[in-house]
Amino acid sequence: MSGLTHRKIGGDNDEKTESVKRIPTDIGSEEEMEPLPSKPSGESIPQDQAEIEVLKSVINDLNPRWRNWFVRGIFTLIMILSFGLIVNLGPLAITILILAIQVKCFHEIITIGYVVYKSHHLPWFRTISWHFLLTTNYYLNGESLIEQFAILFRRDNFLSPLVQYHRFISFSLYTAGFVAFVLTLKKTYYLKQFTLFGYTHLALLLIVTQSNLMVQNVFEGLIWFLLPVSLIICNDIMAYMFGFFFGKTRLIKLSPKKTWEGFIGGAFSTILFGLMLSIFLCKHKSFTCPLEYDSKSMSWSHDNCEPAEMYTVKEFHLPNFFRFIIPDAKVYYRPFDKHALALSIFASTIGPFGGFFASGFKRAFRIKDFGDTIPGHGGFMDRFDCQVIMATFVNVYIFSFVRSPSPQKLFNQLLAFKAEDQQEFFRLVKNHFG
């Protein structure tokens, strides 16, 4: 950290002079940018300067460009292998992974805001932000868990009130944070505090809400989680590779290192990869069957699941013209192929804009990375920025074009009814179909 400046702050009767450290960056800004907030405590936003001692002897003689390529490639491989191991552990491990990444991304975002907040000695910013994070998770994930485990929660005398009053408890928790924020308002800094209040809620919207949608996608079948996540990973890797070796034409000013060659090469690679991966995933019902809780065995089970028709192979009836030319020609496909194609196109064309959005955010704060957790990559938010918009699209896509009523979920909800409500339900069914 270098480049100290001074500025004066304070009220009408006193002036305070404080040192301000500028955050180093190599984003290559072409226009003048507003100065960063002050950091009198000396705390700074961590940048990607992490190095592994073992690698230093190997990469020390390489030029910086190839050194970054080598480190980035090694840790990309490590992350992919780790992700594969977690997927092998099942949906519970995947859900825990999503929540852990969510917390880390939120921490990186809030750390940036904390640098701003602490500059004016304003209290409780991080405490209130984490309170809102826990409250939002309690509400959103609680709604999802109630939908999946309603019968289990209602049978337990201890958990039953949490189900019945879930939304009231959630609102009470949010109100507590809201009141705490109002009580911590400090004269002369109202505008800054309300700005950061909105900043926190934007972080909750972009990170917590999207991670909850990702968890919902897991319950729809692991294929709706693995395929989109893998598409973003593939697009990110291939766009980097094509841009590294062939990139010459800059794509967008927000991210100077992004090129048209990388964007186009990554798009074609992602579409091809998506179709190939979907063929593999469709062959295994552990990936295609929705996750449904069996109230009798008290566990997740795919034993009684029959994959939906869209995952099964069908013959495509060729037009008479082609059948006349090649009488014995047969073409087979899966209806899911069109969904895989739609997801692949979105991941390769719109998905990167999540990264562009993050680039704009970082440029606004004049930082290169959100953190230094992953060598060669930066912070967790640097790697999962594109996953945010992808998770939302997949959830909307499922509810708009794919999802159908689940008899098992309806049965679980029926079991959660009181005895008199179950009898009334049977009476209505009998009258309707009788």
Describe the overall structure.
This protein has helices spanning 53-59, 64-89, 91-118, 125-155, 160-164, 166-183, 190-219, 223-246, 260-282, 285-288, 320-325, 336-349, 352-364, 380-402, 407-415, 419-433, and strands at residues 2-9, 16-22, 250-252, 255-259, 293-294, 299-300, 314-316, 331-333. With 434 residues, it is mainly alpha-helical. The strands form four sheets. It has a two-stranded antiparallel ribbon with strand order 1-2. Strands 3-4 form a two-stranded antiparallel ribbon. A hairpin with a 6-residue loop joins strand 1 (2-9) and strand 2. Helix 3 runs antiparallel to helix 7 (190-219), helix 8 packs across helix 14 (380-402) and helix 13 (352-364) packs across helix 14 (380-402). The radius of gyration is 26 Å and the shape is flat. The model is unreliable at 1-36 and 38-42 (pLDDT under 50).
Indicate the topology.
Blueprint: E1 2-9, E2 16-22, H1 53-59, H2 64-89, H3 91-118, H4 125-155, H5 160-164, H6 166-183, H7 190-219, H8 223-246, E3 250-252, E4 255-259, H9 260-282, H10 285-288, E5 293-294, E6 299-300, E7 314-316, H11 320-325, E8 331-333, H12 336-349, H13 352-364, H14 380-402, H15 407-415, H16 419-433
Antiparallel strand pairs: 1-2, 3-4, 5-6, 7-8
Helix pairs in contact: 3-4, 3-7, 4-6, 4-7, 4-15, 7-8, 7-14, 8-9, 8-12, 8-14, 9-12, 13-14
Short characterization:
The protein is mostly helical and 434 residues long. Helices cover 64% and strands 8% of the residues. The radius of gyration is 26 Å and the shape is flat.
